[in-house]
Write a structure and sequence with these properties.
This protein has six helices and two strands; from the N terminus they run αααββααα. By secondary structure, the chain is mainly α. Keywords: DNA-binding, Transcription, Transcription regulation.
Amino acid sequence: MIENDIVDGALGEETQVPSTNEFAAFHRINPATAAKGVNRLVDDGILYKKRGIGMFVATGSRAVLMGRRREDFYEQFVRPLASEARKLGIDGVALAEMLARDPGAGEENTRANAKEGAL
């Protein structure tokens, strides 16, 4: 949740984040579980602690998270997509055209084709 809020811009750099007790109460989880998540973000350099004040979003955290997520996106979606495109004989230009299509228009065409097939 904290990572999403940082990426979305809801939590800016140098902004204080809720305490582990607040997270635990809000999500109805064990405070130790909330602390583990927050400590992981501290270990990753996403958050830092100001003694006696609380946890804050570190400068540069959004860029770090965006870079990680882009790499994860590439590994989880783009690589398999490109592999399947190669299997189907779809070149880079055709694949780019497919990706540029209006998703809403594709749904309408799919529904229209399904309707025609049913008749």
